[in-house]
Specification:
The protein is an alpha/beta fold. The chain contains six helices and seven strands, in the order E-H-E-H-E-H-E-H-E-H-E-E-H. The structure holds glycinamide ribonucleotide. Glycinamide ribonucleotide (GAR) binds next to helix 1, strand 5 and helix 6.
């Protein structure tokens, strides 16, 4: 699949010499979050400041401590507790990496065109409320799709409907199972998500 990065005009620009500061929100294991952290470790233009988890995740907490990142656990999820933390840290861009909680309009309004999500299918297929993680791969398998993939998109008020930045596809073979489909999709995510985040962040620096 062709890579299409869509750059749009919007009023927020990061100062040219200041790095873009990211926070990553997760609800799952956090393999994408860790991959983003290692990708940006020595990057001068984009820095990951911390990870927020909507679930208890002691392994991720230790990982953050080892990597000098802030870690906030918010379980049960409570946006009102997290927004001031992001404000205080001066976060520019929010990255949703397997984050499964509904994001309010207020939260989105605090980061207009500065919230990026990854979804494990080729949207608009297999998106919307209730479509996440393993459920997506099971549906792709049941429907005997010949391909699937990932979508990296901006976040708006509607689940999985924000502007698409880029999509990448992979084949689904006759002998694939939901588990092997998930593994193929994770490989695409780990390969392409950091670069897409980086390119988008660099487009904010003017
Ligand atoms: C990823 O596959 C991501 O695309 C998906 O959750 C997984 C998290 O994996 N996100 C969604 O389904 C959002 N609708 P990870 O915790 O190993 O990064």
């Amino acid at each position: 699949m062709e890579i299409t990065i869509i750059t749009q005009a919007f009023p927020y620009f990061c100062a040219v010499n200041e790095p873009v500061k990211l926070v990553i929100l997760v609800s799952g294991k956090g393999s994408n979050a860790r991959n983003l952290v290692s990708y940006f470790k020595k990057n001068q233009h984009v820095i990951v400041c911390g990870i927020v988890s909507s679930k208890q995740n002691p392994a991720l907490e230790s990982y953050c401590a080892e990597n000098q990142l802030f870690y906030e656990e918010c379980y049960p999820w409570n946006e009102a507790r997290i927004l001031p933390v992001l404000d205080k840290t001066g976060i520019d861009v929010v990255v949703l990496a397997g984050f499964l909680k509904k994001i309010s309009s207020e939260f989105i309004a605090s980061f207009p065109n500065r919230m990026i999500n990854i979804h494990p299918s080729l949207l608009p297929k297999y998106g919307g409320a209730g479509m996440y993680g393993q459920r997506v791969h099971e549906a792709v398998f049941s429907n005997k799709e010949s391909n699937t993939g990932i979508t990296i998109h901006l976040v708006n008020e509607h689940y999985d409907e924000g502007e698409i930045l880029v999509q990448h596809a992979c084949a689904v073979d006759p002998n694939d199972t939901p588990t092997t489909i998930e593994s193929k999709v994770h490989q695409l995510e780990h390969r392409f998500f950091p670069k897409a985040v980086e390119q988008y962040c660099l487009s904010l620096k003017r």
